[in-house]
Amino acid sequence: xxxxxxxxxxxxxxxxxxxxxxxxxxxxxxxxxxxxxxxxxxxxxxxxxxxxxxxxxxxxxxxxxxxxxxxxxxxxxxxxxxxxxxxxxxxxxxxxxxxxxxxxxxxxxxxxxxxxxxxxxxxxxxxxxxxxxxxxxxxxxxxxxxxxxxxxxxxxxxxxxxxxxxxxxxxxxxxxxxxxxxxxxxxxxxxxxxxxxxxxxxxxxxxxxxxxxxxxxxxxxxxxxxxxxxxxxxxxxxxxxxxxxxxxxxxxxxxxxxxxxxxxxxxxxxxxxxxxxxxxxxxxxxxxxxxxxxxxxxxxxxxxxxxxxxxxxxxxxxxxxxxxxxxxxxxxxxxxxxxxxxxxxxxxxxxxxxxxxxxxxxxxxxxxxxxxxxxxxxxxxxxxxxxxxxxxxxxxxxxxxxxxxxxxxxxxxxxxxxxxxxxxxxxxxx
Length: 430
Ligand code: AMP
Fold this sequence. Notes:
Rossmann fold; alpha/beta; seven-stranded parallel β-sheet; binds adenosine monophosphate; 430 residues
């Protein structure tokens, strides 16, 4: 299959060619023809599958064919994303793919000044990429008019609901015209996503692709079982031993991300933390420094990491396992992208055993355990009682992990013992 056969015209084919894409990805092959036929689409695709191009390319094609004029402050297409980083990333894609068309675009999100965004919209914009809060501010301030939207994309809808945007989404839907083409992209399909899809989409076609980054054999999943108090030494050891130049590390809490970043810096591994408490400027800088190789380790929470798109990011380390198994899929979606090789390494302590079970259930496979000499698990350490609930805390009746220290008596995570890897696999926790 080629992009030509999908029915895209020359200006788009030229832009695709500039990107070096040879063939459409599975989600592109399935979704593009349907969208070109003006169907509403419900797509089950996660990040890393080429989903952004899957909705952007046909949208640009249809908008270029229909050169309808709209009034000032009105936009023809709206793409909503849950996070600022994802909005910026999607907009970069829109700019790239629309390079040889006459279509114009802008991106708006919170955390930065609203006036330049108002000015950009005033100039006339065909496609707007936005996060919900800032977009609603712009509408309320009469700086944006959504009454002529022909094309609406809800990207990463599952994450949008996880982040509590359900009311904002409902408000946005009420502002959009009833007659328009709607696309909903989501990595997972909970009951609430299905309800949202039923409300938004008109006789939709469901498009599904395999969970590329999960079943993708190019992503190697590994766990290292370790005492919680030894994780810090172990992560430094792994990064140094494998000479990782660019590694994205996940923690479950903002505080945990800051703390780990400081510890890594102390160990000579230049790092930065990104999470919701950081200013937009700090987040953008950290991401840029990470992409340029100015920092080696980016420590992120789940939400902050949405939208990070670095081609061929070689390593993702879960310093702590997520308490929501789908988040594991999102996290490792950062590596092994677009057919490149990736490594997903998780440091798992006894408190996270249940999270690991949930993740393995979702992946439908057991993750290989590699023991690193010098980091033996102390069997006398018991699971700690849970402290809090929710994202970044502990899940329902499950056991907790990240909020306290344990007091291993026997584990000695020190010195030269750590240098030798012992590739014994082990099914019990210790
Ligand atoms: P996404 O799933 O949209 O986050 O895209 C993941 C990565 O795949 C991005 O870096 C895209 O530039 C890249 N990509 C998208 N479509 C293709 C394609 N057909 N061939 C190769 N790479 C692609």
